[in-house]
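thought: fold this chain, then report.
action: predict
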Amino acid sequence: MASAFNPYILQRAQSIASGITLVRKILAENSFPNGFTTKQLYELSQKYPAPPSFQPYKAPMPYLAKGASPVPRPDHPIRSIKFLKTQVLPALEGVQEIKSVNQPKSGLVPEPDLSNLRPVRREARKASANEFVWKLVPPEEVRRPKTKASTTDRVVGREVGVGADTSHLNKRRQRARVRKVSEAVLQLKAHMRLPKPLAEVAEVAI
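observation:
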């Protein structure tokens, strides 16, 4: 079991929280009528500075020893496109702020008649003309949980997806979400068990 004082776990939790805040700021300040790809959002996020209190990421020595590529932006909350794709965006999708949509690629000429093609080739052509983009979830599409939690009880981990409705996801993505939320809750609880002075410093960093 990881130590409550593991700096890498704490830094990762801080990065996720700071990354979520940064993405929300980007979505509030920019318009995306046709949606946005993960790559587009990552490139835009790099134009935003990291908070002064943000703790830069330092990869543990075993990770570096494997010869893996260095993290592109260790000094930034969204340190890589992979971190954005696997940590930050799933958290926002889990609380129904964004959704993934498969739609025709922007800027493409209309597809010709594909009715004469064989089914396999026809489906391949259609797939190549589409792309997955992220879009904001309209308020009327947000699904509310059937049971309401007491306003006097604090649910640990709500900020990392605990209690979020996942009925809009398929079974595979629901299972993946459970694993990610469980990992995030363990990190959050480890942070909450820090001595008060360290916890206050961590709160500032977040």
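thought: worth noting. Residues 189 and 202 are 13 Å apart (CA to CA).
final: tokens above.
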